[in-house]
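Final report, Chapter 2: Outcomes

The project's central promise was a pipeline that accepts a single protein chain and returns its three-dimensional structure in a standardized token representation, suitable for archiving and comparison. That pipeline is now operational. To close this chapter, we reproduce one record exactly as it appears in the project archive, with the input sequence first and the structure output second.
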Amino acid sequence: MLENKTVLIGVTGGIAAYKICYLVSRLVREGAEVHVLMTENACQFVNPLTFETLSQNRCIVDTFDRNHPMEVEHVALAKKADLFMIAPATANVIARTANGLADDMLTTTFLACDCPKIVVPAMNTRMYENPITQANLSRLEEFGIQVVKPNTGHLACGDTGAGKMPEPDTLYQYIEREIAREKDMTGMRVLVTAGATQEAIDPVRFITNHSTGKMGFAVARECMLRGADVIIVQGQVSAEEPPFCHVVHATSAADMYREVTRRSLLADVIVMAAAVSDFTPLTTYDQKVKKQEGMVSIELRRTMDILARLGETRHEGQFLCGFSMETENLIENSQKKLEKKHVDMIVANNLKVAGAGFGTDTNVVTLITENGVEPLEKMTKGEVASAIVNRIVASRMAQAHVEAVARQKEDQ
């Protein structure tokens, strides 16, 4: 995820400093080049040797250390950095950075960087809530520096309240969002559906399918990493929700129809990855249906076709992507769906192909558009999501170019 990226981590003198060891390790595993800068007080909590071992780079503490290459080190690091995060950030370092003070290697390098910067406050609740600290944090945000709100919980000092540093995996997500992808979807509003719907028979039983939400979540995550504003309308899922997305819950096909259609007109891109039930019981019982001897039948009726409705009501320039899961005649059935429902792309897969289908970490899909059929080899669902989003972005860029040329001709 972070190959060829350089991340600077500033560690200050807080008890949460020990957690940053895991963050540095994770960043290195993801391919990043990591440089750790520590204040002298931070060295009381974690030995610099620990960070040097994890990052395979010298941990920098002393501004006037002579044991380094002949270059202005804080400037050299600042030039190569793709992101600088200070975590944990004490009230003292927050005050210094907010006011442009640069009296050690960490704050000097921070001031010299023009890359994205993230500050992660971690301190006693009273210190965090002090108006002076809050003013300093607001000042950092005014300068375009992202501030991660601390968690609320039991603190090392024995108090309970705000000031607890988020876990390393959460901090990694903030870094990943900033630098893992080119921001070619900035300004786009994306609506993604994911998971399975449930159609109630009675208060106990329902009709559903095996969808876990993995594929839809992978698409939503990819769009988020590329800078899009993402809304997920999700049914029942067992996969982990992607961060930094707005989530709306929908239980039944009718719920999903309502939640999707009320938001569809504001979306630039819609990706319908949810497994929505085609049928729902004609009668839903208020009480549990008792077990009976002999055969029992349940009368069904068709649910609303969300994708078809979106195809009928789509606005100009909106990209609409549907999914098709088949067990036979994959290409033929999916091409009919593409045309009948007026969509731009169908992502089709066959449940009977090894590595495809519900609940797996991989998928084998074919991308079908009016321009042709593109089969993809077996990939992780994250890789499939990247391929899907690449085609969406390319299509929108091509459309924007056509529109620009048309406007130019009109002006002439």
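Archive annotation: The two ends are 46 Å apart (CA to CA).
This record, like all others produced under the grant, will remain available to the consortium after the project formally closes.
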